[in-house]
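Curious: can you check?
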Amino acid sequence: MIAQFFRFLFGYTYITRKNPRPFNEVHKRSCRYGQSISQKRYLRKEQAYLLIILNDGKRHYDGCRHCLPEMNTEEIQKSIKTQ
């Protein structure tokens, strides 16, 4: 409980897997899909966006379609095609 308070206090409001897979998603803490992750890695907003933008080498990070649609590659590609 105390750890959760300090994570919230210091702005750790994003979640991804602690042990990354070849393809990973970043979620907001309030996202129902992010809450189902068993071993979580907590991130600040800057860290989460850097992971998504830089794609951290071979481990591809993407924003969740539901809670981070502006950082989800599929949603971005759809919006480009419709313009």
